[in-house]
Amino acid sequence: MAHVPSRVRRSRAAAQGGGMGGRAKRRIGLFLASGLVALTIVGLGRPAGAVTYGTTGDVINDPNDVSNPLDLQTVTRSGDTSTVTFSFQTYDAFMDSNVDLMGAFIDLEGDGKPEFLAAAAWNGSSLEGAVLDADGNVKGPATVTRTATTSLQLSFDRSLIGGATTFTWLAIAFNDVNGNGQPDAGEVDAAPNDVVLRIAGADRIDTSIKTSQDSFGNGEAHAAVLAKATDYPDALAGTPLAVAKDAPLLLTSPAGLDARVEAELQRVLTPTQTVYLLGGTAALSQAVEDRVRALGYTPLRLAGPDRFQTALQVADQGLGNPNTIFLATGATFPDALSAGAAAAHKDGAVLLTAGNSMPGSVAAYLATHPADQVFAIGGAAAAADPAATAIVGVDRYDTSRKVATTLFDNPLIVGIASGQNFPDGLSGGAEIGQADGPLLLSAPSALSGPTQDYLSANRDAIEVAVLYGGTAALSDAVEAAVHTAIT
Predict the structure, then answer these.
(1) Among 138, 389, 393, 431, which one is most buried in terms of CB atoms within 10 A?
(2) pLDDT tens by residue, 23-61
(3) In terms of residue numbers, what domain contains 187?
(4) Which of 351, 349, 377 is nearest to 363 (CA)?
(5) Is residue 180 within 8 Å of 113, Cβ to Cβ?
(6) Same domain, 172 and 320
(7) Tell me, what DSSP letter sits at residue 14?
(8) Residues whose CB falls within 8 Å of the CB of residue 200, separated by 6 or more in sequence, listed in order
(9) How many alpha carbons lie under 13 Å from residue 23 in its C-beta half-sphere?
């Protein structure tokens, strides 16, 4: 395949549509989201070439470990002119409910990069089958038949894989006998059902680029949003803009367009598309704007004389005066980070207060653009607008928890960023907003209590947690605690 889409977008696709039951579809789709499609090329962590796609197929399994009910003994493929059937034979008897995933990757081009996954999964009451593409999109149903206590057949219409009659394949099984969904894969444990991902670069600019690369394939974005990498005020309102415009939020130095960002714009955009610049020339210089124009894109600067009016420009010119407003203090960044993904979720905008005070420009905007809902995120914003619906915690971490609890119902995906620094939460908020999940905050060294409580309380719904930033932003201990909380 020319392009393997983002893990976050695949995990979102795994939870949507297609007529397949949500739980079964998530189980199959999350196998794609966890990155294991790519890992099959190197045998789930074993040296490259250890697993091959033969014309009769291959099985990712440990032949010396026959205690697991889903250890595959043999897998065969047959088919007439219209139907493809895979027959799975295990060493031991298994129950339908043991099958967290049993299926086969299908490689049409013989390059070790599967285009499809045909699989069965337990949906909570029965086995359900489907054929998915590598984006996590359901192409159509597959019929599941239990032929014996040690066997299962999976059949589907050949048209679901483009009518191919010749292809190579590789079979794999996830066992859910203990509720863990751990596969046998040689001597290597693959990812469990609940996946923790980390998106990190060498620095804040590179992390924003890595996030863009995870979100968008070549030429897939409809726009891009640029923000100053060294300070946050003009960027705080950018998350819902990026989501609304189907755009990455990229950071760059104020003096000039970073060469790495330039390359990412050229990768993710097509000519003449719009690049939004957040803030005046003190935030992003005229040289940045000129370079964007020279690259063949259309720069559109959203700027006011201060951070408050820049946010108003984003709401007015960028978002078309939405009916839902999120207020957060512009004096610090944490509450605005939490508000950004929520505003994207509610098709709203983020406006800024001057701490506990309402700027005259914002008050005038609210008076002339009455909104259906106004939320005040954090104590300062609540003090600035007592009439707003207040979402306030005891600290920044508790406020982010309360935003997620109040505004997101059973999210499948959550993002986590440092509550001590702003950059990773800006670009990460745009991605997690596109995936319709909340952005939670944590201290860098240890998972903050309110965030841990939220993850634990919603573990049945959460399938993927994405950490934004390297271990200086969120330590390995945070990552481990996140994994424990959602599994």
Answers:
(1) 431
(2) 444 444 444 444 333 333 223 322 223 333 344 444 444
(3) 7-193
(4) 351
(5) no
(6) no
(7) T
(8) 207, 210, 424, 467, 468, 469, 470, 471, 473
(9) 13
